Structures are given as structure tokens and as C-alpha cells.
Amino acid sequence: MASRISDGKAKEENLVEHSRLRRIGQQPKGTAQPGMTSIAATIDRLIADSQAAGGPEIEFYDDLPIDELPSELQTVLYPIVKELLANACRHSKSKNVLVGLGRDEERLCIQVQDWGVGFDTEMVQLHRHGLKAVQQLVQWRGGTMSIDSRLGAGTCVVIEIPLLEDTKRRSD
Fold first, then answer.
1. H or E stretch including 55?
2. Which of 24, 159, 164, 169 has the most beta carbons within 10 angstroms of its beta carbon?
3. pLDDT digits 0-9 by tens, 70-79
4. Who contacts 105 (Cβ-Cβ below 8 Å, separation ≥6)?
5. What is the dihedral of CA 25, 108, 149, 55, to 10 degrees?
6. Tell me, what DSSP letter sits at residue 116?
7. 150, β-bridge pairs
């Protein structure tokens, strides 16, 4: 499992290298930077609210293009990020959390990572209602979700969701 944590670090570095860093606590609540998509502004507000409530320092890496994501992806993106961020803030005891959004021609990538207490994925993954709901949303959209966690080393959740809906999947 340690190599999966390393993979999460590599993915984090990739998001950092190809994105705009915004420290959320440094801008007024509810404001958006020029060129931000509305979903990024919504996540900015979610992060600002979390930090205002005494949560950890949260870095948001947004590599989404200027144009909007399809509305059907926005409807699943927000609850996924909300749940994963809430879990990291509530359970990890980490002082820092990373939220990353990226997109290429084929898929949307979501990453939420902390450097907190971690957990045993065999014991928790399928028994928590929030994680189960996230997993169901991801599967419903034809995506994948990996949870890499190790006690004392934190947790990295990476989700990839195809941008184009597989119509065959929907008809099954």
C-alpha cells in the first residue's frame, strides 16, 4: 500500500505543476477569480466555509478549462468534493488538505489528500455511508475511485470520471 501513497504524491505534484494555486483563505468569501468556472467558485466557498469553521489549511488546485463542465458532471462533482473534504477535515487531524480538480479530453480528475492519521481501507471503505455514496456516484458516471491510506501517513482519494457518457452503460 505504501507505493499507492507514493503514486498519490506523484499525482499531487502533477496537479501542482499544471495548475493555478489559490490559497482560499486569502480572498473574500464568495468571490471568484477572473476566468474561474462556476463550479470552482462553489468549491471555493465550500473551502472558505470549512476554514472559517476552524478547519485545516486547504489548498485548491484547479486546472479546469475556462468553459463550463457539462451540468451532469457538475451535479456529481460538488457532492463528491463536499463529502471527501468533510471527511478529511473531520477525521484526518491533518493541518493541511489538498483539493485538486483537473480535466483532459477524456476525463475529469478529482483528488483530495491529507497528511493525517490515515485509516485501514479494508475496515472503513465500504462501511461509511459517505464514502459509499461517493463510490456509487462515481460508478454511476462510469468512473473509478481509489483510496490510498496508511495509518499515520494520511489519505489520498483519486477519482476519474469520463467526460463522455457511455450510453451502453446507461441502457444496462
1. none
2. 159
3. 888 888 999 9
4. 163
5. 20
6. S
7. 154
**Category of 35 on φ-ψ map: left (φ > 0), alpha (ψ -120 to 50) or beta:** left
Contact 162, 109 (CB under 8 A): no
For residue 86, which of 46, 120, 35, 141 has the smallest C-alpha distance?
Answer: 46
Distance CA(112)–CA(58), nearest Å, equals: 10
Dist CA 92 CA 72 (whole Å): 30
Pairing of strands 96-103, 20-23: unpaired
State how beta strands 57-63 and 96-103 pair: parallel
The Cα 96–Cα 111 span in angstroms is 14
Tens-digit pLDDT profile for residues 109-132: 999 999 999 988 877 655 567 888
pLDDT for position 124: 65
Q: Are 37 and 64 in contact (CB under 8 A)?
A: yes
Give the pLDDT of residue 31. Answer: 40
Query: What is the tally of helices (H) and strands (E) in the chain?
Result: 6, 6
Three-class secondary structure of residue 157 per DSSP: strand
Residue 139: strand, helix, or coil: helix
∠ CA 123-78-62, nearest 5°, is 100
pTM of the model as a whole: 0.74
Using an 8 Å Cβ cutoff, are 77 and 108 in contact?
yes
